[in-house]
Amino acid sequence: MSLFLRFFLCGSMAVLSFVTWAQQAPSKASDERAVDDVAFDRTEIPDAPTPQNKTNADSSKKAAEEGSQNSQQQPKRILGVMPNYRAVGAGEIPPPPTPKEAFRTATLNSFDYSSYLFVGITSLLAEGSAAHPDLGKGPAGYWRYYWRGFVDKTDGNYLVIFALPTVFHEDERYYAKGEGNVWKRAIYASSRVLITPDYHGHNTFNTSEILGRGIAQGVSLSYYPSNDRRMGEISEKYAFAAGRDALTNIFREFWPDIYNHILHRQP
Question: Domain boundaries in the chain?
Answer without folding.
Answer: 2-262
